[in-house]
Design goal:
The structure is a single chain. By secondary structure, this protein is α/β, with parallel strands linked by helices. The protein contains 23 helices and 18 strands. Strand 17 and strand 18 form a beta hairpin. Helix 12 packs across helix 13, helix 13 crosses helix 14 and helix 13 packs across helix 18. The chain is elongated.
Length: about 500
C-alpha cells in the first residue's frame, strides 16, 4: 500500500491526527470488539492484571506496574505497542517526530515554511515508537530530558536560550510514542522531579530555559516493592501524577506456571538427542518454585522469579542430553537424578535470609529440590502413615508404628538387605533393570504416576523411591557425586554405630 509522501498528499488522503492516548484507546476498543487476545504470550493475568491495564488505557492514564522480580512487567509494557497504529506520519528530519499538523521543533516549522504542502514526510512503524530506559543511580536529567550543547551554540553562533542548541534526551525523542522506565525507585529523587512537568503539563525545562513543547507521550513505569525500602523510593508528587498503579503477581495455579515454563524454556535442541520430559517431571520443576516461594530460608519480599523453573527445566534437559551424548542413545528421558546436576539453576535465583545464608545457597537449593519431590509425592501417592479410609489398621512394620500399606513390599525388599545404586550416566536399559528389580516398585509407580511408556515408567519408579526417602522411609546417599544409592533407613542408621 502506497503511503502519502508529502503534507499535501496526507491532507488529500483525509488523515486526521490524534494523540497517542486516543490512538491506543481506539485500537484497544477495536481489538476488544473483535475478540482478539490482548496480550499474546502473557499467561495467568487474564482475569487480574490485564483488565486493569485495559482500564488504564481506556482512561488514557499513565501507569506503573508494581510487582516482584520475574512477573512479566517489562513484557507487558513492551506489548503496549500493539495498541499503536502500525504506521504514523512525521515530518522528515525532525528529532522529535513532529506531527505534520503540529510542528514542535525549529526544524519542523522551517520545513513547513519553506516547502508548504510539499513538506516531505517519513512513516514511523509502531515498534520504533516505543522507547525504554532502565533506571540506575547514574541516570541524569540530560539522559532523560536533554541539555544545552555549548559546541553547537558556538558553532552556530546562537544564544543558549535558542531551541536549536538543545540536545534532546530520550523522553522528548519518544514524542508521539510510549516511553517506559524500568525499576523507577532506582532513579534519584532529584531526577524524578524532572518528570513531574512531563507527566502533568507535558512540557519541560533545560538548564533554566523554559521550553514550551507540548509532548505527546505515554509514560509507563515498572517497580519492585522491595526497592521502596532497599534501594530507593518513588517521590510522593511523582506517585500522585501516575494515574494507575497495577499490582502483578506470580502464577496463581501450578498449571499456569507450567504453561509459562513450557513457553519460555528452550528444550527442543535438535542436536541428535531427543529429550522427553514426563508430565510429572514438569509438575516437579514447577513445584520447586512454589516451595521456594514458601521457604523460610528464602527472602519472600524479594520474590522467586519465574526464571527459576525456566532455568531449572533447561538444566534438567541439558543433563539428560549430556547423558545421551555419553551413552550414544538417540532418545533419553529426564530423571530425578538429573535434578542434582541442575541445582545451579536454583541456587542463583533465590535471595536468602540469614538462616538461609547460614545453611549455604547450595544446601538450600538442594533442600528446595527435595521439598518439591516430597510435595509431588504427597499429592500423587497415598499417605503411608494412615490406613486407607474404610479399612481397619493392620500389622505395623518395624518400630516406627507405620501401618502396612502399598509401600510394604518395597520397604520389605530394602529391609531384607537389598539396595540399588543408580548412576547419572547409566544407559536406559540398565536404569530400567535396576529399578524394576525392587519388588512392588513397578506396580506402585504405574498406579499413581501413570507414565506414558516404559522409559517414563522407570523415571516414575525413581520418583517413588525419592519420595519415600523425603518421607524418611528410605535412605538415599550420593556416591562420588554421580551415583545415587537407596538403602533401608534403619540399617543405614545402625551402620553408623559400627561394631558397637
Amino acid at each position: 500500500m502506497s503511503r502519502p509522501r508529502t503534507l499535501g498528499e496526507l491532507k488529500a488522503a483525509g488523515y486526521e491526527p490524534r494523540s497517542v492516548k486516543d490512538e491506543m484507546r481506539a485500537n484497544l476498543i477495536t481489538r476488544i470488539r473483535s475478540g482478539e487476545k490482548l496480550f499474546p504470550g502473557i499467561i495467568g493475568y487474564e482475569s487480574t492484571v490485564e483488565p486493569q491495564i485495559v482500564n488504564a488505557v481506556l482512561s488514557r492514564h499513565d501507569f506503573i506496574l508494581l510487582g516482584l522480580r520475574g512477573q512479566a512487567k517489562t513484557r507487558l509494557l513492551r506489548a503496549l505497542t500493539q495498541f499503536l497504529d502500525e504506521w504514523t506520519p512525521a515530518i522528515e528530519g525532525c528529532p522529535l517526530n513532529s506531527d505534520p499538523f503540529t510542528p514542535l521543533t525549529h526544524h519542523a516549522k522551517h520545513q513547513l515554511e519553506v516547502h508548504g504542502e510539499a513538506t516531505p514526510l517519513v512513516w514511523l512503524h509502531r515498534e520504533g515508537r516505543y522507547q525504554e530506559k532502565l533506571a540506575t543511580p547514574d541516570v541524569t536529567i540530560a539522559d532523560l530530558i536533554g541539555d544545552i550543547d555549548p559546541i553547537r551554540a558556538a558553532t552556530m553562533k546562537l544564544d543558549y536560550s535558542d531551541e536549536r542548541v538543545i540536545h534532546y534526551g530520550i523522553i522528548p525523542r519518544s514524542n508521539r510514542g510510549i516511553f517506559a522506565i524500568n525499576e523507577l525507585p532506582d532513579l534519584q529523587p532529584r531526577i524524578q522531579v524532572g518528570l513531574l512537568n512531563i507527566l502533568e503539563e507535558k512540557d519541560f525545562q533545560i538548564r533554566g530555559f523554559p521550553v514550551r513543547m507540548p509532548l505527546d507521550v505515554v509514560m509507563v513505569f515498572s517497580a519492585n516493592p522491595e526497592d521502596y525500602t532497599n534501594r530507593g523510593n518513588i517521590i510522593t508528587p511523582l506517585r500522585d501524577r501516575i494515574n494507575s498503579q497495577i499490582i502483578t503477581h506470580y502464577p496463581k495455579q501450578r498449571e499456569e506456571g507450567m504453561r509459562i515454563t513450557a513457553q519460555e524454556s528452550w528444550v527442543e535442541r535438535g542436536d541428535g538427542v531427543k529429550v522427553d520430559v514426563p508430565a510429572f517431571m514438569r509438575e516437579l520443576v514447577e513445584e520447586v518454585a512454589i516451595q521456594a516461594r514458601r521457604s523460610e530460608y528464602v527472602d519472600q519480599n524479594s520474590g522467586v522469579s519465574a526464571r527459576l523453573p525456566i532455568a531449572l527445566m533447561e538444566n534438567l534437559v541439558s543433563n539428560a542430553e549430556r547423558r545421551g551424548f555419553v551413552t550414544g542413545e538417540k532418545k533419553v528421558v529426564t530423571r530425578i537424578c538429573d535434578l542434582q546436576q541442575a541445582v545451579s539453576a536454583v541456587s542463583g535465583k533465590v535471595e536468602l535470609v540469614l538462616e538461609g545464608e547460614q545453611e549455604g545457597a547450595l544446601n538450600v537449593a538442594r533442600a528446595l529440590l527435595g521439598r518439591g519431590v516430597k510435595s509431588i509425592f504427597a499429592q500423587r501417592f497415598p499417605d503411608a502413615y494412615k490406613p486407607k479410609r474404610g479399612r481397619p489398621k493392620v500389622e505395623t512394620l518395624g518400630d516406627e508404628g507405620m501401618t502396612s500399606s502399598e509401600y510394604r513390599p518395597v520397604l520389605e525388599w530394602f529391609s531384607s538387605g537389598n539396595h540399588i545404586e543408580i548412576a547419572d550416566d547409566m544407559p536406559q536399559t540398565e536404569f530400567v533393570q535396576q529399578l524394576a528389580s525392587v519388588k512392588g516398585l513397578p506396580e506402585l509407580a504405574m498406579k499413581y504416576l501413570s507414565p506414558a511408556n516404559a522409559e517414563e515408567a522407570a523415571v516414575a519408579m525413581e520418583l517413588a523411591l525419592e519420595g519415600l526417602h523425603q518421607h524418611s522411609m528410605l535412605s538415599r546417599e550420593r556416591v562420588d557425586g554421580m551415583k545415587t544409592a537407596f538403602k533401608d533407613m534403619l540399617k543405614s542408621m545402625l551402620s553408623g554405630f559400627g561394631d558397637d
